[in-house]
Amino acid sequence: MRTGIGGLGWRPSDFWAATLTEFFEAIRGYNDANGAEEDAGAPTDNEMAGLLAKYGG
């Protein structure tokens, strides 16, 4: 519900009336429109080293 109502801006009645397919397609459309990556994947070894250096570990 948080994603449908808060993230997508749906009314509760829209959320409850949607099928799972409609809900997940709406999320995909929202992500596409907002520049989200399809599959960011796991961080590389170098990215992990940078994160650990920055935030500890």
Automatic annotation (TrEMBL):
InterPro entries: Phage_TAC_6 (IPR019056). This is Phage tail assembly chaperone. It comes from Rhizobium tropici.
